[in-house]
Design goal:
The complex is a heterodimer. Chain A is mostly helical. Chain A is 43% helix and 6% strand. In chain B, helix 1 (2-14) crosses helix 8 (225-239). The chains are: A mainly alpha, B alpha/beta. Chains A and B meet through helix 25, helix 27, helix 28 and helix 29 of A and strand 8, helix 6, helix 7, helix 8 and strand 12 of B.
Chain lengths: 795, 448
């Protein structure tokens, strides 16, 4: 702990005109030095960031941002002196705005005039400040500015605050429980026996490293990125073969012409066969285009490449179907649904136009069609998404001023020239214009001769990024942009925030902008702790050569997931953000069902892949998104959700109990510890043991055989059995009979391509078609009960 | 209120009193809400009011197929037949002839943005940068109070922020809804007497009771606040399911599609329109069975940056068919006297065409409102020849003033949201009070 002995400085006030005034050549104001007031207690040291946020930023935001924000009159030179100020401040919605603005103030502290920092001269009207004197030199606000300047010059006045001071006080669950949570939320599976016996952090790290190399993590990363990119929006978007100019990609013509043209002249069975084959081929090709952006994410994660490659990849992800469109079909066998998953890195050549200008996700048809451009939008929608997803910046909140388009008709090129517009467009338009090799549509028909200088939107700011203007001869504009994005610290922060939301199911706290709120300091402390955590994870991500697993590990090991209790007096804003217990999303529950019961809830698609009802018919009911109209996940359950859970439990019981009993005991996942004729009374211990086993699988805890949880399930089993036995009816609904292998699909109407897949029927001698022992339905009741359990549904 | 209840339950949980709370869904009886009801319809992408309710010619010379707007009742509109290809879906004049007597149109609304997201938020909440609850959520929360119905606020997407006032239910396909609403039935689409159940009735009740008791045990244990919240949310969700059977009894066995709703257009069968109709159908039957208070219907394809005339007229035609369907079914179900319908969009479209014969975003738009206490055949507000919003007299909103008249005010979404709150009778409710909408010159009686 230190206390400064440095003198405080203040400066005399100079009154000047408003923002666009001109003071001319005015000598610097005289400066006097004041000693600290012995009556006022001065903290021995302070957290400079917190001091800035709580004492300095509210004033600067109020008095300086109108001119010194990006696009403001001070920063564009659109002022009386036609002079561009170097002092540019970022809005609160910009991630890292505190650090960026502190750096700007630091620079203004180093720059002096007459031994007085410009930071203390400008706001009182000195140094020809065009904005006059927005801060009274005798005010408390100015004193705070002075103290900040003094603090910045004297490191001894700055406390050594570690990033996770608050979070470090939170008691956490042990490594076994931590891994159980991680395995479920990231891997979509249960912890193995080894993983349930983790002695220390080193062992945990080893096990976690393995978990993060599994396919489950790849699936999660795709989900997390779709939540932001929304490229899984389905066939109603602009993604499809219409994006491909037929003169460059010849097979696109067949797709664009339609089935009627393709099958002209055919009748009867030939027409049906032709039509079926055509629709399959091109619907799958268009699906492949929609899947490509997320397959690129999957590819980078799976191959453990630097995660920056999602934007810098100089290749497309192509499967046998999209190869038809990309002029690459020679590299693949004839596509079939079963080879749909054969994704490969491919460089595309667009005929005489030459090499396709690959730039990771940004150049994929899936992105360009989902976020299409128009002659008036001019790629700005794409720029918004780029900022939102890859730079953690919501450009819609960069300037909080209303737009009156109807009043701007007199302003030529309003986005560039009208102050109401330029504050945002200064940020948006250079990024938007970097897309200008592609047309203002959904098309991927790029212009190979287009350069940054000849860009498509000459009325807009030229292609660039931030303050950097793209070299005029640059043709690989998107690749140039991607290189800058991934080098920007906001990219790493965007990855961190995206994983934080995905893993924990909630957005990071917004900056508490209401400085007048009574609990502002508490809200700031909560935001500050979380923000420091996110920045620290982002820093670790950068230092690991952009290993996305480092970010996942940081979050999984944090109290945000591991909290076991809340310390007394803990920050109340952070309290509801700590620990497990949140509702698991449908993607994780779908995996969990598969892991516990060995079968999914649903049908099979035409690639013989499980079609989870939770990810199709019931996805929106269960709080998921459709990536089009419904783009935000539900955080709290509703009655429809509760009924979906009940149906899920019933159907899983119906699908798996009798089927499980058709298998030898050592192959069973549901009932490995009982026989079909195990009944209450004589076989109570076996039944209790199996209940204990099922509870461990569904809830992740081992309950005592004679404890209340096993007892509750046992009573459910025993009472149901007693009812059934008393009724004496052995019939089992056909859907719940053990007649199918629920884990193995078999093709239907295969000639040679199968039109669909269903559960494989069992041989007649292996089937269970009734419930003569009354135990199947009793176990079904137990399974329905366990699937509907809080611990099954929540982390 | 739900939040108050949650706070109470959290406190009780901390004292180990959770188990004393009602926790059995089995035997729980559903509340039945008898109205009033609200449907909001969002025309996604930015509609063009000059086509249908603020008729005027474009300011450039592009051929639009007619010489002058015409009028039907109080409404000035383009004399257009609305087509989807060769199919005549509707005509603007016919629509207003049939339903204009129920409608108040507000023209010249300044949404202060040409950005989709901001416009959507502004139109349906009254603010651009704060995350206020949508009108539907606010209405449902204020009207339902402590009543528990399974689907208080239905939505098919876009702006359905609830601010935790009420549970949000996203509408999906009716067949999936039926399957979920009858969770114990193996074949929910079968006639009632042919339905099979997973479990015997006694077993089903036993499983539900065991589930509820287990939840109470969890709730009684030591929990983190985040866990307590989840437990209580699940409990509330379970208790809310009791009315689903009433809803399923009310719902038709075969969901509506375009062909069944509009046989005169057969074989026209538009998938998007069919989905809108089914959403409306679900909402209206949920109202009539006492299971919902508000619904938000998302329609799309109004963002006609290219080939504006063809595409906008097609989608307006489909929107009119949706509104016709809502009016008709509401009449059939006896809901008309209790149902308010608000139709709006995030902004309008430019008075000029772009190079692709499209029209781009324009911050001025219109809104159509129908319902009890709202006069029909009425237009308030206006735009000038350049499609700029004209002012209205705050003391007499029916009086239109020039665009730059200092004594007037432009009509902003906040004005309309305030007025709608008042018309809906929720302006003095506790939820509305928590999300106030201060404006300089209120137009709170604009619908009176």
């Amino acid at each position: 702990m230190h206390r400064s002995t440095a003198p405080l400085v203040s400066c005399l006030l100079l009154v000047g005109p408003g923002c666009v005034g001109d003071l001319g050549d005015v000598p610097p104001p005289s400066v006097e030095t004041t000693a600290p007031d012995p009556e006022v207690p001065v903290a021995p040291c302070e957290d400079r960031r917190a001091f800035f946020a709580l004492q300095v930023w509210p004033t600067i935001k109020d008095r300086c941002m109108a001119c010194h924000s990006p696009g403001g009159e001070g920063t564009t030179g659109d002022n009386a002196k036609q002079k561009t100020a170097g002092f540019v401040l970022q809005w609160e919605t910009q991630p890292g705005f505190l650090e960026a603005n502190i750096a700007e103030l630091d620079r203004m502290i180093v720059e002096e005039l007459g031994d007085v920092p410009k930071l203390l001269l400008k706001p009182t009207g000195g140094d020809s400040h065009l904005g006059g004197a927005p801060i009274d030199a005798s005010s408390d606000e100015f004193k705070a500015l002075e103290r900040f300047a003094t603090m910045s010059r004297d490191p001894a006045m700055q406390c050594d605050t570690t990033p996770d001071d608050i979070l470090a006080t939170v008691p956490v669950v042990d490594w076994n429980e931590t891994f159980r949570r991680a395995a479920m939320v990231i891997g979509g599976r249960l912890a193995t026996a080894t993983e349930r016996d983790i002695p220390d952090e080193t062992a945990f790290d080893d096990e976690l490293a393995g978990l993060l190399r599994e396919e489950g993590f790849v699936r999660r990363m795709k989900t997390y990125y779709n939540d932001a990119l929304l490229t899984e929006a389905g066939p109603s978007t602009g993604v499809g073969c219409v994006q491909f100019p037929a003169d460059v990609y010849p097979r696109a013509e067949e797709c664009q012409d339609g089935v009627t043209a393709f099958c002209t002249g055919l009748t009867g069975a030939e027409l049906t066969a032709c039509s079926t084959a055509y629709k399959l081929r091109w619907s799958m090709a268009q699906r492949a285009l929609r899947d490509e952006p997320l397959e690129l994410v999957a590819n980078v994660v799976r191959k453990e490449r630097p995660f920056t490659e999602i934007l810098t990849a100089d290749y497309a992800m192509v499967n046998p179907y999209s190869a038809l469109l990309y002029n690459l079909e020679a590299d693949y066998d004839e596509p079939t649904p079963l080879t749909y998953g054969d994704w490969r890195e491919q460089r595309v050549v667009a005929g005489e136009n030459g090499d396709y200008p690959h730039a990771g996700i940004l150049s994929t048809p899936g992105f360009l069609g989902r976020w299409l451009s128009t002659p008036t939008n001019r790629d700005r929608g794409r720029a918004r998404v780029v900022h939102d997803v890859f730079l953690a910046t919501d450009v819609l909140t960069l300037a909080q001023r209303p737009i009156d388009a109807s009043a701007l008709t007199a302003v030529a090129n309003a986005p560039r020239n009208a102050a109401a517009c330029s504050s945002c467009h200064t940020t948006v338009d250079p990024v938007a214009n970097a897309f200008s090799a592609f047309p203002d549509s959904r098309s991927i028909d790029f212009d190979p001769l287009m350069t940054a200088a000849t860009n498509r939107h000459q009325e807009m700011l030229p292609p660039g990024f931030g303050s950097e203007v793209m070299p005029g001869d640059e043709r690989e504009m998107l690749a140039w942009l991607s290189d800058r994005i991934v080098a920007d610290e906001r990219f790493s922060l965007s990855v961190t925030r995206l994983l934080y939301r995905g893993i924990l199911g909630r957005q990071p706290l917004p900056y508490p902008s209401d400085v007048a709120a009574a609990d502002h300091a508490v809200r700031f402390a909560a935001w500050d702790a979380e923000d420091r955590f996110l920045h620290e994870a982002a820093r670790a991500f950068r230092e690991s050569n952009h290993d996305v697993r480092v970010v996942a590990s940081r979050i999984l090991k944090s109290p945000f997931l591991r909290a076991a209790a809340i310390p007394d007096g803990f920050n109340p804003v952070l309290v509801p953000r700590l620990g497990g217990g949140r509702l698991l999303p449908p993607e994780v529950i779908a995996d969990k069902l598969q892991a516990v019961f060995g079968a999914h809830w649903g049908t099979w698609d035409n690639t013989a892949t499980p079609q989870h009802l939770l990810l199709t018919d019931y996805e929106v009911f269960y709080g998921g998104i459709d990536s089009l109209g419904v783009t935000e996940r539900l955080a709290t359950p509703n009655a429809l959700f509760a009924s979906t859970v009940e149906r899920m439990g019933n159907e899983m019981a119906c699908r798996t109990v009798a089927w499980d009993l058709t298998k030898p005991a050592d192959e069973r996942l549901v009932l490995p510890l009982v026989d079909i004729d195990a009944i209450p009374g004589s076989d109570e211990q076996e039944i209790r043991a199996n209940i204990q086993y099922l509870i461990e699988g569904t809830r992740g805890v081992v309950e005592p055989l004679d404890g209340p949880e096993v007892e509750a399930a046992y009573q459910l089993f025993a009472e149901t059995y007693a009812d059934l036995a008393a009724a004496g009816d052995p019939s089992l609904p056909e859907a719940c009979q053990g007649k199918w292998d629920r884990a193995t699909p078999v093709g239907v109407s295969c000639s040679p391509i199968c039109s669909s897949y269903v559960d494989t029927p069992l041989a007649a001698e292996d089937q269970i078609t009734d419930d003569a022992t009354y135990t199947i339905r009793a176990w079904m009741a137990v399974v329905s009960y366990l699937v509907a359990d809080y611990r099954f549904l929540c982390l | 209120m739900r939040l108050q209840r949650r706070n109470l339950l959290q406190a009780l949980s901390g004292l180990g009193l959770f188990a004393a709370l009602p926790s059995h869904r089995a035997g729980a009886t559903a509340d039945r809400y008898e109205g009033p009801y609200l449907i909001t319809v969002h025309a996604g992408g930015g509609w063009e009011p000059t086509t249908f309710c603020d008729g005027k010619l474009p300011t450039d010379a592009l051929e639009v197929g007619y010489d002058e707007p015409t009028t039907t009742g109080a409404f000035t509109h383009a004399p257009l037949t609305l087509r989807d290809g060769a199919v005549e879906l509707d005509s603007v004049g016919a629509f207003f002839a049939d339903y204009g007597s129920r409608l108040t149109v507000i023209n010249g609304i300044d949404t202060q943005t040409n950005n989709h997201q901001t416009g959507i938020k502004h139109t349906w909440s009254g603010k651009t940068f704060e995350e206020l609850p949508s009108l539907g959520a606010l209405f449902a929360a204020a009207r339902l109070g402590d009543m528990r119905v399974p689907v208080p606020f239905l939505s098919s997407g876009v702006y359905d922020i609830t601010a935790n006032l009420v549970p949000l239910t996203r509408i999906a396909t009716p067949s999936a809804l039926r399957a979920v609403a009858l969770p114990g039935v193996i074949n929910p689409s079968a006639p009632e007497d042919e339905r099979e159940h997973f479990h015997a009735a006694e077993t089903e009740a036993r499983v539900r009771a065991a589930t509820a008791e287990r939840l109470a045990r969890v709730g009684a244990g030591p929990l983190l606040p985040i866990e307590t919240a989840s437990v209580l949310d699940l409990e509330a969700a379970r208790l809310g399911t009791a009315g689903f059977e009433d809803l399923m009894i009310a719902m038709p066995a075969t969901p509506t599609d375009t062909k069944t709703a509009f046989p005169e257009l057969a074989p026209y069968n538009d998938a998007a329109l069919g989905a809108w109709l089914r959403t409306a159908e679900t909402a209206l039957y949920a109202f009539s069975s006492g299971q919902a208070a508000a619904a938000n219907i998302f329609t799309s394809s109004f963002d006609t940056h290219a080939a504006h005339d063809v595409n906008q007229q097609k989608v307006v035609g489909k929107l009119f068919l949706l509104l016709r369907f809502i009016f008709r079914l509401a009449d059939t179900l006896g809901l008309t006297d209790k149902l308010t319908i608000v139709v709006g969009s995030e902004f309008g479209r430019t008075p000029r065409y772009n190079a692709g014969a499209g029209k781009d975003h324009w911050n001025v738009t219109s809104m159509m409102v129908s319902g009890p206490g709202i006069a029909g055949n009425r237009v308030i507000g206006a735009t000038d020849d350049e499609l700029r919003p004209m002012c209205v007299d705050p003391s007499a909103p029916s009086t239109t003033l020039p665009t730059d008249d200092a004594s007037g005010t432009r009509i902003y979404p906040a004005h309309l949201q305030r007025a709608l709150r008042k018309t809906l009778g929720i302006d003095t409710s506790e939820p509305a009070g928590r999300f106030s909408l201060p404006v300089e010159h209120p137009l709170d009686d604009i619908f009176a």
